Amino acid sequence: MNNRPHIEVPTSRREFLAKSGGGFGALALAALMGEKAQADTAATDDVDPRAPKVTHFPAKAKNVIFLFMEGGPSHIDLFDPKPLLNKLAGKKLPESFGKVILAMGENDAPLMECPRVWKQHGESGLWVSEWFNEIATCADDLCVIRSCVSDGINHSSGVCQMNTGHVIGGRPSLGAWATYGLGTENQDMPAFVVLTDSNRQVVNGPRNWGSGFMPAAYQGVQFKPGADPILNLNPPSHITPDRQKAKLDLLSQIDHRHSEMRNDDSDLEARIKSYELAFRMQSAAPEIVDLSTETEETKQLYGIDQKETNVFGSNCLMARRLVENGVRFVQLYSGAGSGWDAHSNIEGNHGKLCKAVDKPIAGLLKDLKRRGLWDDTLVIWGGEFGRTPMSEQGNGRDHNPTGFTMWMAGGGVPGGRTIGSTDELGLRAVENEMHVHDLHASILRILGIDHTKLIYRHKGRPERIDMNEGKAEMKLLGLA
């Protein structure tokens, strides 16, 4: 009979091996799977895995705000002017540009003009179209990378690679790697926060900010748009702090007792930590996420007083407040659910979305400066890919992962300059190509991390953010 009280029945094969034959079965299993108990990867250490860590290099920035335009913004309509495109508009792509593989397969579509008004801005003379007139006022702060390249031809693979380094899901996100490598300065708030501009599902969902094969403690926490970004933050009125703490203490005792024989379960450990963090957040978070304490002038700076810019402006202001309070990595999604995907009517699509983000982003850059956060905060702008010079459905553009634009600002990145270039039509990167792996390596380098040394051992394999293929761009550090 197995129901006698002194008989403990193993609940899994792993537990059976750990308890059988003095644990030699577990040793054999560990050898076969290449598992290794290491202090830097164990999720059950007494030390909080999110505790601040020492960097490999002196860090230029310590926080990141990633402005993600989901769906693929058109670089040739925003930051990469191509006069030849308008001259050849209506004609087929010249044979000299070679064969092109398109996501939607509309082959032999004619080139489509870019009706934007382009101007050079700032002392640097940086080119920006009239769709981003507010961001253009910060031209001397932007380092525009015109030669970005990815492998994802559709949204799922493109968004996945830009967030995790691989076109197939399951790997840790960039925010998770940053948290793993740096920890966080505020133990009462999540280290990695995600903000979206609507209740629509981002392509791939939470996998974009997940921790993959790393402990769940490093995954991102999604805040909701609106007045109450953190659900269930405040306890019911009849639950006193002492009563709630007593309940959590009892739950913690039960969970820790359960986890003692399951020390390989990082999800369980992360759940325990999340309860503890949630309790601390009830004291710290309400003040941090309360935008009503900001001045009217600040709200206007972000466009919160205007209908078109209210949502993204609120998210940008929230991002500033989060990094100001020690949150390590904040990612903002514009166009959640591939909103920037302009296969048709790019004028209406991009016109509306640019209006929604232009003033908020400019406000964020200016506010970071005046609050003394500029040098410590790296701001990144971009999407999963760009768009083609050829038309689609007559008035739209298809996906273009072979050459597109991103920019960085703050965090010690020299502004008022461009890095790399695409060909004369904006189809492919031709100078100083920067693959997603290079972008990730560069971002970590700005944070003081050597991406080749930031290793997590998974099944005996030393895993890195760049899949062992990237290199940091020294121009972003002002070293070239």
UniProtKB/TrEMBL annotation:
Q: Which domain of life is it from?
A: Bacteria
Signal sequence segment: none
Query: Tell me, what's a Pfam family for it?
Result: DUF1501
Xref: PANTHER family? BLL7424 PROTEIN, DUF1501 DOMAIN-CONTAINING PROTEIN
What's the protein name? DUF1501 domain-containing protein
